[in-house]
Specification:
With about 525 residues, the protein is α+β, with helices and mostly antiparallel strands. It has 14 helices and six strands. The longest helix has about 80 residues, at about 325-400. About 15% of the residues are buried.
Length: about 525
Amino acid sequence: MSKEITAPSELVPALLREGRRHGVALATMFATIALAALAIGLLWPRTYSAATTILVQSSDIIQPLMEGRAVPTGNADRASLARQVVFSDRVMRDVLKTGGWLAANPSPVEQDRLIEQIKGRTQITSPRPELIQIAYQDRDRKRTFDVTTRMAELFIQESRAAKERESREAFEFIDNQVNDYHQKLIDAEDSLQKYRTANPDAQPGSAADVNSRIGALRSEVEQSRMTLMELQSSIGSLQGQLSGESSVTAVQTREGLYRAQLVDLQAQLDRLLLTYTDQYPDVVRTRRQMEDIKRQLASEQEQRRSDPAAASKSAFDNATFNPHYLEIKRQLGEKQQAAAAARSRMGAAESMLKEEMERSGRIASSEGTLAELTRDYEVNRDIYQDLLKRRENARVSMVMDQEQRGLTLRIQDPAVMPLRPSGLRLTHFALAGIALALAVPIGLLASLVQFDPRLRSAPQIERLVGVPVLATIPVYETPRDRRVQRSRLLLAAVLVLGAIAAYVFMLVLRMVQY
């Protein structure tokens, strides 16, 4: 059967009795733990913390006006960039001077150690995309304030200087590229101009003009050849007709000649009237000729009647050229002249076609070199024009950064002098000491009552033996025992009250200090 006491009616009296017996030990334990915690709290180093918040504005009222002309700053991870700036060697050296660490003339190794310690006590975060918070902890409250303030100032200065330097270097780089490509453009233009001067056929659109000219000349040659073939066919036909005609025709009388001419003019008049009116000059001329012939015919008839022997006066008067023969010969001459002209045109067209074909060959041979020179010129020209625009954009960006228009950094919440230390303070150690000083003695006392094998109550005996207990005899204290007991209680009270008094004194002292 278990000897442990579980009933509250048995546990509380047992705790009180053991507490009276071991009061001095419990009080000593309480005072020792409480005063030890208080001493640790007094010796614990005080740490002060200060923080400042920087507002980063990458756009203002001027950005919409300069959109497409200026390039604003864009930072995806502002906290990381802020750490790189604040933890740079130049900023850390300035922080050492601000914090007074350089007054002791530390060695370079010690300076690096101090810089690492400062970095470990510095926290840089970005609570919001446009905010950067710099927090610093140190044992000296004034140095904490000075270092935090100086870090924020240096971060703003370095960020502005870096942005201005970046935009200036970008402008200088683009300006150098503009000068380089300007020279390249001039060289490409000179090369193209020299090649065109040395090769007159190497002109833009020459190939298209030559091809068009070749097509026109080919058409002209074909047309001239067809015309010549037609004229040669006509010449052959006329020559055949001419061979069957006599050049001289004998006429019995002049009257017959006049009649033949009159018939010919009548046929000619009929052909003209099919196309023209009576007032057409050829119609009028033909009718006048017919009237003249009619008068001559009438005169010849009158003379023959008056002198019949005059008709046979001369044999030559009864002979004349064949008009049909003359007409065929005239047409043959015209056809031969037209054929010669067509042959001449065809020869000239073939000669010009040959020249254009040779020119086309020269253009084709120079087309590759011309295309390469033209391509180099156009590429350099396009890049040069684009770089000119970019240089002006970079110039505007540089001016904006110089006037602090592109990236605005300002302190939103400045650092303040810390009045109370951060982290674990004396109050925390005091409360923990009181709680621990109460918990440890009470816990030990309860363990003693629970696990000590001695019998402390009649119910415990009844559980162990199994027989009822009729009566119990209390402990009788002598006067000497009572004096010793009172002395112990007084000593325990003095120890507890002394520890409490120490706590009250430190509390009052802290209140007076703050």
